[in-house]
Amino acid sequence: MLTALDFMQAALDEARLALAHDDVPIGAVLVKDGMIIARAHNQRELDHNPVAHAEILALQRGGAAIGHWNLSGCILYVTLEPCPMCAGAMLLSRLHSVVYGTKDEKGGAISNEIPILENEKLNHRVQSSMGPLTDECSQILKEFFQRKRREKNTSGKKA
Question: Of 102, 109, 136, 147, which one has the fewest beta carbons inside 10 Å?
Answer without folding.
Answer: 147
